[in-house]
Amino acid sequence: xxxxxxxxxxxxxxxxxxxxxxxxxxxxxxxxxxxxxxxxxxxxxxxxxxxxxxxxxxxxxxxxxxxxxxxxxxxxxxxxxxxxxxxxxxxxxxxxxxxxxxxxxxxxxxxxxxxxxxxxxxxxxxxxxxxxxxxxxxxxxxxxxxxxxxxxxxxxxxxxxxxxxxxxxxxxxxxxxxxxxxxxxxxxxxxxxxxxxxxxxxxxxxxxxxxxxxxxxxxx
Length: 220
Description:
The protein is built from six helices and 15 strands. It is of the alpha/beta class. It has one domain: 4-Layer Sandwich (Metallo-beta-lactamase, Chain A). The strands form three sheets. Strands 1-2-3-4-5-6-7 form a seven-stranded mixed β-sheet. Strands 8-9-10-11-14-15 form a six-stranded mixed β-sheet. A two-stranded antiparallel ribbon has the order 12-13. α1 packs across α3. The termini are far apart.
């Protein structure tokens, strides 16, 4: 596992209401089906100077809590429950009191990492999560995981895609609880309906846009 310190940057905003999006890159191990892989994860912090959300509490609870700072953490939102996206979530919850929210279809994946713990809230398709003057619309996008979701911020022209869509195409399938035709259907029906200039903020690596990914998805 990398010993590199977590990296943090502002990638969008602030809006008129003071909402900005920060990326915190943390490093750790992804485990599934008996395999282990070193990974860097994007932890997204969406909020104002007073309140914020954490999207995908990965690996380093101390770095996440430090990035939240003195703000009230409203919710720890999970785009899906692979361990590299949730392994710091209970520790962040313990430090801040913020509830963990996950789509119920991903509880089977969550239980692989935390069989004796549970999320606090269910995410639902079409749900809107407000923070400051921004709303994030929950879009259920199964395929990489059964309860995977993306979070669309219309007012910011961006979508937080978790591991559903990357710079270069769909998220990985072929492991337990994943399915390639399903993820393609999710992307086509729930993401490619967005404007081409919509910025895609991904669960790993650099971002992209809907327009940049459209030809590759169409060719699959």
